[in-house]
Each structure stands twice: as C-alpha cells, then as structure tokens.
Amino acid sequence: DQTTSEPSVSIMKSENESIAACLAKDFYPKELKIFMNSDSEIIFEATDPILTSSGKYSAVKVVKLSSNELLSCSVQHNSKLIKKTQTAEKPPCNISTPSLEG
User: Where in the sequence is the signal peptide annotated (predicted)?
Assistant: First the structure.
C-alpha cells in the first residue's frame, strides 16, 4: 500500500516553436488533473497517467501557445493545487536553484 506522493511539476518549452508542456511526475494515487492556459490549443494530453517503474505515476499535457504569453500550469492532486508559471523568456539561473559556487 503506497503512501500519497505529491507530483513534481515542471514546465518545458520548445526552443523555436511556441509549444509548451507541463509535466507532473512521481505522484500517487493516480487521480490528477493538469490545467494550462485556457486559451491555448491542446496538442497532446495524457488523460490516463502512466505508471512508472517506481510504482508512481506521471502525466503530461502539451499545448500550443498563442504568443509569448505567460505560461501557467496548475496540477490538482489530492485536493491540493500546485501552480507553476513561466514567462516566455528564459528565467535567470538563480531562481530556486541552490548556488553551486563557493
């Protein structure tokens, strides 16, 4: 019997095209919803989460962005809402990444 595992949520964007993906991985139980920019055209959505070798689930949603809009991704899991946002610009490296120097 598995304990509840919160998904790690990440946003990925293609370099040249305006395509973005929201990835939720390593979550349990299986029930999960991914919400992205409402006006974005959905290219692909894994409505049935994939069971990984670790016994946890992963899910992904891919959308086409209309412009250099702010990308938002919300993942609902176990009545908890996890939000990620990302601008079209590449974020500075020091955001929430521990410094490797010194």
Answer: none
pTM of the model: 0.76
Could you report the per-residue pLDDT of 10-19, keeping only the tens digit for each?
A: 998 887 768 8
Which whole-number Å values give the CA distances from 100 to 2, 10, 29, 91, in the listed order? 34, 21, 34, 17
Q: How many CB atoms lie within 10 A of CB 29?
A: 14
> Which residues have a Cβ under 8 Å from the Cβ of 6 and sit 6 or more positions away?
27, 77, 78, 80, 82
Q: Which residue has the tokens 């019997």?
A: 1
Q: In the chain, what are the domains?
A: 8-85 (2.60.40.10)
